Amino acid sequence: MTDITTDADEAGFASDLTQSNTLGESIRAYVSRVRGGDMGALPSIFGLVVLFIVFGIANDRFLSNLNMANLAAQSGSIIILTMAIIPVLLLGEIDLSAGVAGGVSACVMGLLIVKHDQQWWIAVLAALVTGAVIGFVIGVLVAKLGIPSFVVTLAFFLGLQGATLKLIGEGGSVRIDQPVISGIANNNMSVMWGWISAIAVIVVFAALRLLRHRRKVSQGLQHQPFAVVVAQVVALAAAVLVVTDVLNQNRSVNVNFPISGVPYVIPVIVVLLVVWTLILSRTTWGRHVYAIGGNAEAARRAGINVDLVRISVFMACTAMAAISGIVEASYGGKVSTTSGGGNTLLYAVGAAVIGGTSLFGGRGKASNAIVGGLVIATIVNGLGLLAQAAYLNYVVNGVVLLLAASVDAISRRRRSATGLG
Amino acid sequence: MSDAPLLALRGINKSFGVVNVLYDVDLTIYPGQVTALVGDNGAGKSTLVKAIAGIYPADSGDYLFEGKPVSVHSPKDAAALGIEVVYQDLALCENLDIVENMFLGREKKNGLFLDETTMESSAREVLASLSVRTVKSVRQSVSSLSGGQRQTVAIAKSALWKSKVVLLDEPTAALGVAQTRQVLDLVRRLADQGVGVLLISHNLTDVFEVADRITALYLGRVAADVAVKDVTSTQVVELITTGHSDGIAAPSTPAASV
Ligand SMILES: Nc1ncnc2c1ncn2[C@@H]1O[C@H](COP(=O)(O)OP(=O)(O)O)[C@@H](O)[C@H]1O
Ligand SMILES: [Mg+2]
What we know:
The complex is a heterodimer. Chain A is mainly alpha-helical.
């Protein structure tokens, strides 16, 4: 035993363990957590690996460098939309209109650039504001009038598609060829900058993790075993290096025009992930979002302004959805009347749930969007390559969503049965 | 009473729509004393607690804190005065851990970000000072705690905030013998630290064991406000069930006039 626990002994609080002592113990603890219904990210990572193997065997182009880069760009808008919806799901609410809100916002951006000759950054700002305003109205209707978010956002899902249609005109579309906007999904970092950024990400992550570990140990706080910290750093480093390596290979089919490098959408996602992880896990606002999702009445009694948090979450969600809409417009080269419609939003909800965010509120994190979004994008991409009939795409995604939701519901039941957190 | 009252309610009325729940209720809480609030189911005990806590502010009446009139319209107002409530329907977030629950709504910050170091150490310190030995880890999620442990966390929260007044709504109702013992000890320890405690309980054994005063509610009115040493258990049962008892003076607004 370490000196930390002796300290606690004297205080008469002997059984408060500040550490699960060995790696073995913490693996056992993890297994019992999974048994108790707390899955974590491992099952969906495992699912992603299985998908890669299956599609890789079924089609030899799936694992090609070109398709991997395409998959990265394709998953961008889904991942960002998933990140947008996660705070709303944490509240135990839903926003069915986030996809089309992103569409309208992107449309505002496109029209400002094309029709009104505005700078790209002014147009992007306008799109974000559009998103935030839509979210504000939704939030007020949900929090102040008490209309279920399902109903409010279903109404917005329909209404906002009308708005896009009115802005663009029937059957029309807005071309996005502004170099910066178009470059998000279609341009790549140079190979050297790709490697430099990758190394920087790994070093910063490792340093933060190790420093946090040392601080917790020295101050006698609850902490993970050192081996787990090392394992996390190694896993992240491996993932970052493999992805960077694949994307830095030449993927052009034309020998005269080599294409290589990490698409800019990836650093955009990394920044959003870091920001949202910090907001949700390290700020008061984030803590209150979880609290409201866990027990809104308890949050109210603790003096939290529940309405204000709800409204701000819907605003943040639709502002993020605007970013997703912009990335989608960049990838597709245009904003059309159907942008963000169809099953875009259901993909995002599915991705969040697959990634480990609960539909019942109070459980989930920003990083769930990465794994979940990749699973959905991989299914869409893989089935697309296999040139299967479109119906199969719907069926498979429907089944996956249902599967994830069942896992969520079952693990929730188990949690309350075993009392595990 | 040698001490001045910490908290005094005078002539509190509260109705939900057409249903009148509290009529001209007077209540006094003294520092260092446990005041028991007794009454049958539906007498209005929880409603009175929520009125004090600012959850359902009273329709009329005076609210005096340390002798001064104050207005309490939200849980924040009550917390700012140093009033802490442990609700009957425990107000804990099951998805958060013990530390997170104890600091909920009053998180410690270090610049922009949460100061987990300070929060975790203070939570551990307070639990230790109350000799709480039953929790395995302060980073345990509340959903993994037993009823007694949750009650302990809720009460420890009030100790953490150095509250002046602590209101406990039936804290032992769902507990076993040993857990009840622990919670009652905790209640007594709080009072001995100078806190004014209001204890709602159905269990007269508990009341006679820890309380200094008893206020009995009958159909939303105060039937009696007496020192524990001046009454017997039988008389209190009578007060709870009929609203009056021989030999106990009714307060100024007699319940008998219903
Ligand atoms: N939010 C509410 N709306 C309407 N009536 C309520 C509400 N809360 C309590 N009541 C009513 O007020 C009365 C007193 O309830 P309560 O204060 O919970 O009693 P006790 O805690 O003494 O058992 C009951 O008749 C109950 O039905
Ligand atoms: Mg009650």
